[in-house]
Write a structure and sequence with these properties.
heterodimer; A: about 110 residues; five-stranded antiparallel sheet; B: about 120 residues; mainly beta; seven-stranded mixed sheet
């Protein structure tokens, strides 16, 4: 079955540390991949997307993600965490011919001073 | 460019009452989505419209939920009668819908509390 897996429902980092949020997908066809962020009491905001162009994708707020076909992964990184990065992060994938968006369960990022 | 608008932002009702949510997508976006997001979970697609036609409503509890997009622009989602388990954030999203890109743009959501 086609799916999206986010490893780690909760991630905690210190301010200034590297942020790494993991996303793996299963698909037999090239996917479209997205990362969304949700701040408390707000809707979802698109951070970045992969659409079969460059494998390293840069997004807003200093985030980037690398598409690795061999690992079926699309991990989200940021070199230095800010307190304002504390939020819920969702990986989502367009899979299959019906182009349905499949969501991961989300990773809650906490940034400690 | 104006984003996706939703109203109200918050709503508190008693069980068995009815409630309606409104969404106005980004201008020119043909595809409109309604999601339900229960606290601590990811979004669950309730219904997807392409213009004024329904593309996917497989997860919409049709005995109590209904949605329409009569003129292919704004949309309403209704719950009648509400149950306690309907307490959630209801998110509306839109996408351009012409196959050129698939990203969805979300509104701020409506937080529903059923007591």
């Amino acid at each position: 079955a086609q799916s999206v897996t986010q490893l780690g429902s909760h991630v905690s980092v210190s301010e200034g540390a590297l942020v790494l949020l993991r996303c793996n997908y299963s698909s037999s066809v090239p996917p479209y991949l997205f990362w969304y962020v949700q701040y408390p009491n707000q809707g979802l905001q698109l951070l970045l997307k992969y659409t079969s162009a460059a494998t390293l994708v840069k997004g807003i707020n200093g985030f980037e993600a690398e598409f690795k076909k061999s690992e079926t992964s699309f991990h989200l990184t940021k070199p230095s965490a800010h307190m304002s990065d504390a939020a819920e992060y969702f990986c989502a994938v367009i899979l299959g011919n019906n182009r349905k968006l499949i969501w991961g369960l989300g990773t809650s990022l906490a940034v400690n001073p | 460019e104006a984003g996706v608008a939703q109203s109200p932002r918050y709503k508190i009702i008693e069980k068995r009452q009815s409630v309606a949510f409104w969404c106005n997508p980004i201008s020119g976006h043909a595809t409109l989505y309604w999601y339900q997001q229960i606290l601590g979970q990811g979004p669950k697609l309730l219904i997807q419209f392409q213009n004024n036609g329904v593309v996917d409503d497989s997860q919409l509890p049709k005995d109590r939920f209904s949605a329409e997009r009569l003129k292919g622009v704004d949309s309403t989602l209704k719950i009648q009668p509400a149950k306690l388990e309907d307490s959630a954030v209801y998110l509306c999203a839109s996408s351009i819908g012409d196959g050129s890109s698939y990203e969805q743009y979300f509104g701020p959501g409506t937080r529903l509390t059923v007591t």
